[in-house]
Amino acid sequence: xxxxxxxxxxxxxxxxxxxxxxxxxxxxxxxxxxxxxxxxxxxxxxxxxxxxxxxxxxxxxxxxxxxxxxxxxxxxxxxxxxxxxxxxxxxxxxxxxxxxxxxxxxxxxxxxxxxxxxxxxxxxxxxxxxxxxxxxxxxxxxxxxx
Length: 146
Prior knowledge:
Blueprint: H1 2-10, H2 14-35, E1 38-45, E2 53-60, E3 63-73, H3 86-101, E4 110-119, E5 130-134
Parallel strand pairs: 3-4
Antiparallel strand pairs: 1-2, 2-3, 4-5
């Protein structure tokens, strides 16, 4: 009960932050190794609104890719893909617009990808994490040019 109250009032614990950082590193490694992406920025925050954060910014050839990473336990009730709610998409849209506005030269094409990292339980020693990559998640209106 005490642990639950701490999480409720103090937010995510250090363990959750560590899991999130580990998930982001696994996602960055996966995107580099399996997809050939080049990492441009990690945990980018808007200078005007520090709450607006983009987990990973990558390049897929000429395409700028904003990546939201969701780290979960294997068998979580809500998969990471579905955890990118309408509210989160609004925040991501604002962050992406801020990122694009600060670039000296805008890319012709950009998109949002979601990477879901499922970490095995601590008692499943040696089990590899599962990484799922979802490309081109709708974030901006169809004819958006910024």
